[in-house]
């Protein structure tokens, strides 16, 4: 009997509820740029796909690296505001949050204009697009001569 009571009390103290709610619901319709999905970029193969193929399929609405052979296709989703909560028998907490919804698809090319790296990134407002792109390109050892000669 004592064992059952102990397990019941322990269960009561260890149960709780955790949740996240966006207010209003966050939209996935871009307010700037065109959102690239994996189905849009699946044709890109590192070491095979050329810059001509990339630009023919994805278009010329990109920003390029100032000092590196890399480009970024960017989009922005509506800003999102919400809150989280945790309800426990011994404690209750609630926190509001704001979510940056700035995204980019980065592509790096070698000196022959062949793709060597790609990545979809969540960008912060703490840095400019060029800063994000330069940091990413440096991390992926992208050549440091600028593009300026894309087809």
Write a structural description.
The chain has 151 residues and is an alpha+beta fold. It has a domain at 27-79 and 99-139. Helices cover 24% and strands 34% of the residues. The protein contains 4 helices and 8 strands, in the order αββααββββββα. The protein has helices spanning 2-14, 38-41, 51-58, 129-139; strands at residues 16-22, 32-33, 63-64, 70-76, 80-88, 92-99, 102-109, 115-123. The strands form 2 sheets. Strands 2, 3, 4, 7 and 8 form a 5-stranded antiparallel sheet that branches. A 3-stranded antiparallel sheet has the order 1-5-6. The chain is globular. The termini are far apart.
List the helices and strands and how they pair.
Elements: H1 2-14, E1 16-22, E2 32-33, H2 38-41, H3 51-58, E3 63-64, E4 70-76, E5 80-88, E6 92-99, E7 102-109, E8 115-123, H4 129-139
Antiparallel strand pairs: 1-5, 2-4, 3-4, 4-7, 5-6, 7-8
Give a quick summary of the entry.
With 151 residues, this protein is of the alpha+beta class.
- End-to-end CA span: 80 Å
**What structural class do the secondary elements suggest?**
alpha+beta
Overall 3D form: globular
Please trace the helix and strand order, writing H or E for each element. Answer: HEEHHEEEEEEH
Query: Strand count, sense and closure of the main sheet?
Result: 5 strands, antiparallel
Q: What is the helix content?
A: 10-25%
| Unreliable stretches | 18-22
Q: What is the average per-residue confidence, as pLDDT, rounded to a whole number?
A: 76
- What is the β-strand count? 8
* Number of helical stretches of at least 4 residues: 4
Any idea what the radius of gyration is?
Answer: 23 Å
Strand content: 25-35%
């Amino acid at each position: 009997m004592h064992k059952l009571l102990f397990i019941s009390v322990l269960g009561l103290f260890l149960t709780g509820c955790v949740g996240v709610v966006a207010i209003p619901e966050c939209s996935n319709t871009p307010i700037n740029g065109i959102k690239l999905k994996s189905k849009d970029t699946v044709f890109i193969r590192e070491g095979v796909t050329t810059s001509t193929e990339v630009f023919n399929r994805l278009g010329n609405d990109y920003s390029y690296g100032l000092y590196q052979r890399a480009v970024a296709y960017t989009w922005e989703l509506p800003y999102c505001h919400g809150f989280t909560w945790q309800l426990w028998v011994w404690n209750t907490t609630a926190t509001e949050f704001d979510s940056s919804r700035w995204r980019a698809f980065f592509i790096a090319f070698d000196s022959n204009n062949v793709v060597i790296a790609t990545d979809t990134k969540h960008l912060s407002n703490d840095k400019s697009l060029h800063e994000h792109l330069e940091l990413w390109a440096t991390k992926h050892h992208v050549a440091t001569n600028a593009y300026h000669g894309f087809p």
